[in-house]
Amino acid sequence: MNISDTSNSPENPNSHPENSEQPVGSLPFGRPLQSEFNDGLDYPRLGSVSFRRGTLTENQEKMWEENWPRIGTVLSDELIDIDQWFGRTGAKTILEIGSGTGTSTAAMAPLEADTNIIACELYKPGLAKLMGAAVRENLDNIRMIRGDGVEVLNRMFRPASLDGVRIYFPDPWPKARHHKRRIIQSGVLHLIATRLKPGGVLHVATDHADYAEWIAELVNVEPLLEFRGWPWPECPQLTHRQVITKFEGKGLKKDHVITEFLWQRTDQPAAETEHTDV
Length: 278
Ligand SMILES: C[S@@+](CC[C@H](N)C(=O)[O-])C[C@H]1O[C@@H](n2cnc3c(N)ncnc32)[C@H](O)[C@@H]1O
Prior knowledge:
Blueprint: E1 35-37, H1 58-71, E2 72-74, H2 82-86, E3 92-97, H3 103-108, E4 115-121, H4 124-136, E5 142-146, H5 149-156, E6 162-168, H6 186-195, E7 196-206, H7 209-218, E8 225-229, H8 246-253, E9 259-265, E10 275-277
Parallel strand pairs: 2-5, 3-4, 3-6, 4-5, 6-7
Antiparallel strand pairs: 1-10, 7-9, 8-9
Helix pairs in contact: 1-4
Bound molecules: S-adenosylmethionine (SAM).
Residues 1, 51, 97-100, 120-123, 126, 148-150, 168-171, 183, 245-248 line the site of S-adenosylmethionine (SAM).
């Protein structure tokens, strides 16, 4: 993610006349959905941040238009019926937030074919790349949501509906004045905990030393999440990425150390919380 001026972007809602027709898989016109959580916890504030542009090739566009209605959906206020979306009942479901180009998502999917994998990303070319792999390799257990993962969790998933949440190499926002944009914060940990089933697993990995320290300070702030640290032997979800992610590769080239954080949802019921739109 970077900060850019999208005033002339074809996807910038403000640059379109009201009656333009939206292509499939576009973010809706108008202000993006943003919740105000009234729970005293910290949530990322993205402010004027927008997501980098990028265009699809002609072939990718064709594939996108053909396949998005079946395997993709855009952030909305509609709760997802997971069983209906995947056309099967009772399978475990993992949400990956910030799947990027989906290299590891696609590599892991066949090894967890009995698990529903939902990749959430804002960056259309990244989703298109993952879609290409899913279509080519017949990866039936992958679905995609385009939108902000925090809003997606809050608006589209019922409490206790997920078996796992993955956040691999989230944007580190290295400058101190941007730390408030980091996705790992007390409020997001709480939100994730409410969406996980008891026993469900949150897996975060980073190659950024300062972000690792930041996360280390937060490992015990959420009472509904038990910090387990490193993958434990009977961890109920695949924790080995099989193929290193794009950003993991970039980090490794710079000799960065990869730090993995795992939490498990406790059995305690979550209290109901309210949020309002801002
Ligand atoms: C540093 S990249 C890592 C991508 C991939 N996981 C990897 O390891 O190669 C972070 C990704 O998270 C996405 N992202 C950032 N904030 C997000 C959010 N709130 N919801 C969904 N995706 C987000 C960005 O668009 C970007 O593709």
